[in-house]
Amino acid sequence: MKGNTLHFVYGIMEAICHGGHYYITCLMQQTLQGTVHAFVLNKFLTNTQHFATQQVMCRILLFYHLGLVDGSIPSSGLLNLLSVCVLVVLGNVLDFCTYSAPNQANDKRATPQQKLLMDDYDVNSISYNERVACCYARGVALYVMKWVCSCTVITGPNGEVVDDLPSQFFVQILNSLLTYKRAAVAKHLDGVPHCSVSLLERQAFNVVECDATLQAMWSLRSEIPADSLELNGKSDYNVKWKQHWEPQWRSKSQNFVKIGITPLDTKYFLAMKRHSQSAHQMVPEDHDRRRAKRARVDSDFHV
User: Fold this and answer.
1) pTM for the full predicted model
2) What's CA 156's distance to the chain center, in Å?
3) How far does the chain reach from its first CA to its final CA, in angstroms?
4) Angle 165-186/28-41 helices, nearest 10 degrees?
5) Are 224 and 171 in contact (CB under 8 A)?
6) Burial of 206 (0-12, 13-18, 19+ CB in 10 A)
7) DSSP conformation class of 114
8) What is the pLDDT of residues 184-212, one digit of tens each?
9) Cα–Cα distance measured from residue 144 to residue 58, given in angstroms and rounded to the nearest whole number
10) Reduced 3-state DSSP string for 25-45
11) Quick one: what percent of the chain has pLDDT higher than 70?
């Protein structure tokens, strides 16, 4: 059964059911659509949460990057590739942990201290290491989107050249996500715990601000559909790959974390740095000297 398929399980007797998910590259458009549906409607639509999905998407994207940009593997379809990119760029936006403070239960309000940390520094349930990984993966996704835009000539249903399909597709998905969320809230349908329209908008606008190309396309969002998770007339698009693009794009060293970092990420990392420095200053001087001595010994040992 492919992704984003309405289904149910009927048991004729008491049973323990075990299920799983298989992510296949040729169905990434359906995976993107299903992920957005589950995010907006949550328990109204599904009875489980798949927290490992984000890691799987990141690994698939890294495989795409290594194979398509730095190597040679056949593409399973441009829109499937772009769907993975969109899922990764919106990784923190679609992550349930983004909207909960550390140790905050789903049925509990954030304390004033937790709310202050979230409002001022975007401190949430996503760990430091996961945040770095998210920035790195987002940077790779943005790089792949620019690669597609630079190395292809894409024509639309009427034969017109589409200048930046990756950014247009991203803006359509993000705009539709916001429209979808507002409609769900208006009908009192709960989605991700603690995720209000304003919090979702904050995270969405934050991601847009990390890339100038996305910002430019976002300013034109009124001209892009905001009520569909699928590209209209997608079967009528044609893609032609340019020749001799390899020297410009392959084997180029990139700081993907820097490419993928957002304004809220910057606030978070600065806050964590200050917290670490403050904690370091509170360490007794003799303990600090002992730790420095151990560090020198370890360094000598490794050398």
Assistant:
1) 0.83
2) 27
3) 55
4) 30
5) yes
6) middle
7) H
8) 999 999 889 999 999 999 999 999 999 99
9) 12
10) HHHHHHHHHHHHHHHHHHHHC
11) 86
